[in-house]
Every structure is written in C-alpha cells, then in structure tokens.
Amino acid sequence: MPAGGFATATAGGGKFEAKITPIVILSCIMAATGGLMFGYDVGVSGGVTSMPDFLEKFFPEVYGKTQDPNLNSNYCKYDNQNLQLFTSSLYLAGLIATFFASWTTRRLGRKPTMLIAGFFFILGVVLNAAAQDLVMLIIGRIFLGCGVGFANQAVPLFLSEIAPTRIRGGLNILFQLNVTVGILFANLVNYGTAKIKGGWGWRLSLGLAGIPAVLLTGGALLVLETPNSLIERGRLDEGKSVLRKIRGTDNIEPEFLELVEASRMAKEVKHPFRNLLKRRNWPQLSITIALQIFQQFTGINAIMFYAPVLFDTVGFGSDAALYSAVIIGAVNVLSTCVSIYSVDKVGRRMLLLEAGVQMFFSQVVIAIILGVKVTDDSNDLHRGFAVLVVLMVCTFVSAFAWSWGPLGWLIPSETFPLETRSAGQSVTVCVNLIFTFVMAQAFLSMLCTLKFGIFLFFSGWVFIMSIFVVFLLPETKNIPIEEMTDMVWKKHWFWKRFMDDKEEVPPTGTNGDPLTEKWAYYGT
C-alpha cells in the first residue's frame, strides 16, 4: 500500500502523478548502503591509525615518534607520507575507477554498477583484515577505493532518478545519511577494539567493514533498475513497467513520454564527455566542479579522517580522542537528518548559506583556542578548553552535515540533463576524489606546518564558498530534473548567457544589464 501521494509539476504546467510507494523507499534505503560503506572507510582509517598495535606493525617510524618522550612536537608526531598514503590510496583508486564506472553506469545500468561496487568492497575488506604487511594493506585499500568509485558514480544517480520530484532531495540525502552512519559505526567500533588486548583489535575494525559491503551487494541484487536507465538502453516496455511500479499509479504516460524524449535527445549525443564542454553545459559543469572543491576545502574530511589523531595531538590522550570522535560521529548523523527534513522545504541555498556562517565561526574559535593554549610541546589542554574544542568541532560538523555534505552530491546529480548525466556524475566523483586524495595526503603535513593556522586556512575557504553560493548557485528545490534548463539555467542572472537559444540575451541596456538582473533574481 502506498504511503502517500502527490503530483509533481512540470515546467509546462502539466503534472506527473506520483505516490511515495514502499518500493521506492526500500530501493533507496538499499542503494544508499553504498554511503554506509564509504562512511565506514572514512571513519575507520582515523581510528586504527591512532592504535599503537597498528602503528607498530605497519608504521614503526610513527610509532616511535608517539612513544618518544623527548619529541617536542605535538603537531608533527603523525606526519608521515606512508601513513597518509594508507588513507589517501583509497581515494586515488576511486578516482581511476570512476572512469570505468561511467561506462558501466551508462551501458549496463545503475544496478549492475552498484553490484560491482559491492564485490570490490568485499575483496578490499578481506585483504585489509588479513593484511600481513604494508603492501597488502595498501592493495586492500585500493580495492576499497574501486568500490567507492563505482558506488559514488551509481548511487546518487539511482536515488535521483527513482525518487519522485518533491522528495528527491530527501531521498538522495539518504546516501549522505548512510555516510554519516558509517562514520559513527566506525568510531564506535574503533572505541571498542582499541581496548582489545593482544594486538588484533585493528583487524576487527577493518574486518567489520564487511557488514556494509554485504548489505550493498545484497541490496544491489534486490533493487529495481531505474526507468531512466532502462529507457536509455532501449528497453521501453520494461522501463514503463518499472515506472508504473515505483510511482504507484497507472497514470504515468506524461512522465514516460518525457523520459523517452529525453532519452532520444541523449542518444543523439555520441560523445557525452566532449558534450560536457559545450557552452550550454558550462553552468552545470562549473557548479559541479566548484561544489566538489569547496566541499573538501571546508576541512571536513581532514577532521573526519584524523579526528582521533587530531584530538590526541591537542592533548586529549588516545582513549579520550576516540571517545570524542564518537561524539562527533553522532552529531554528524543527527544533523544529516535535519537536512533530509529541510532540504525540500527551505531549499538548497538557505542551508548552504546558514552553514557557511556556522562553519566560519566555529573554525575561527578553534584556531584561537589552539593558538593560545596548545604549544608544540604542551602535554595537556585544560579540560574546559578541551570541551570547548569538541563543542566547536561538533558545531562545525553539524553545519557541514546538513549542507555541504549532502548537497555537494545532491545538486550535481539533479542538474545535468540526461545526455550528459552519467558523464557529469563521473566528473563529480572524479573531482571530489582528486581533492579528497589531496586533503588526505596533505593534512598531517599541513597540521605540522600550519599548526593551529590550519583552521584559519579552512575558514578562509568557507568564506569564499559562501560568496559563491550567494551569487552563482541557483535554487533547484522541487524542480523536475528534465526541466532544469528552462526553469533554472535560462532564468539565472549569470548562467542564462550560456544557454543556447534562438533569442540571445541582450548584452547591455536596461532590461539586459547583468548587474540589474542579478539583484532582480535574488529579490524574487
């Protein structure tokens, strides 16, 4: 029985009838377990790299630094390229895998691509849990990275295409919610396994990644393929049947015809990546690239990768550091739920702008506290200031979790037209993984060099990205994916000049002046 129903408006004034059916909700939950695996990988790496047994076995040089009482360098004791490679190799592998994932997503479908991701995840988990040396450990991380590349390519597309328009944002954010749940799960596991005697706790931490890996693989076997993908590959009758199932109504002809037309236009594009570079696709491409760069330069992944290490560095101690990371993980999950509730009500822009203020403030406060109270050779941070640091990190994480975290994936997945959607998603994942790799590989070295100033570095980027949102990011709330060009890009004060149209936008004059139209746009 459907849980509810509504009609979604098209640009032309027609309506697509759609109900929120159980099959849609279950399919989205299963698909979003790809985010659970991704989040666990992010969270587990920071925890195990703070475990003495793990460091002693794979990174003896770092272990020696952490045990040396004569080392006067809190900020630099974890600065090691091999240790950073353990974290960052996953994202470099994901970057390469996403190019292959683009082909499988387009030619084989979203469902098989998610299944491939699941197999890569399982293989990587086995190698990591059984690792005997650094090479085996890194190879396992590489397989996990391949899974990330395939999952991040397919899952956001799957969620955007199967969800009804009016709850597309909320269902799409299930992916990011599962990322945060995965991080929390990893933090809880790390907190428990760090207490295991005998030196094998880290193996359990890495091995338990098999749970989300199996969930994703099983989910990929059970979910329906999206009607967009079936129609795109010429399976029209099957696509129509699936559309009828997921919408919970027989009145699907208008939406079906629009999907068929979009597919016909997409097939005329022989080279989707080359087509991305055409002038009319510059707005979507520019915003996609900017969002992925900005998402990483908030500093979130640096904090989530290395939260236990970071807190240990500023004097919390290993046990307290892991406990603090658990608190942050819980805040991350709860705040993502806020985004699911509000993204289709208050809109994308409002969430991003509010979060910009919150993140900027919290990072400046953290920088001031660390700058005044934590010297390079201090042994402890006063309890009151330690609590304030955790509070400010939680403030930062909560803002990110209801804004740049989920929306960095949601907005690109809903803005590209069908003919460039798979290629556009590849660019999204590719750029994200490039800068995730850069940040993972560089953070500990940056921490050693900049010390507390690293938070001022990130706060400066938060200010820049907030200005970008104010002037260049349009609102996409409650707009059908196939109507984005007419309803968003052709009406935006700046991006409309890139839209191919018979009537060119006047470059000058009272009605065509870009500055005038900019303020008119933001005044509506």
TrEMBL record:
InterPro entries xref list:
MFS_dom (IPR020846), MFS_STP/MST-like_plant (IPR044778), MFS_sugar_transport-like (IPR005828), MFS_trans_sf (IPR036259), STP/PLT_plant (IPR045262), Sugar/inositol_transpt (IPR003663), Sugar_transporter_CS (IPR005829)
Q: Which GO terms describe its cellular component?
A: membrane
Q: Does the keyword Translocase apply?
A: no
Could you state a single Gene Ontology molecular function term? monosaccharide transmembrane transporter activity
Assigned keywords, A-Z = Membrane, Sugar transport, Symport, Transmembrane, Transmembrane helix, Transport
**Where in the numbering of this chain does the Major facilitator superfamily (MFS) profile domain appear?**
27-477
Q: How does it sit in the membrane?
A: Multi-pass membrane protein
Q: Where are the transmembrane segments?
A: 20-40, 83-101, 113-131, 137-159, 171-192, 204-224, 285-309, 321-343, 350-372, 384-405, 426-446, 452-473
Q: Does the keyword Ribosomal protein apply?
A: no
Q: Which family is annotated?
A: Belongs to the major facilitator superfamily. Sugar transporter (TC 2.A.1.1) family.
Q: Name the chain's protein.
A: Sugar transport protein 13-like
Organism, by scientific name, is Populus euphratica (Euphrates poplar)
- The gene is LOC105126906
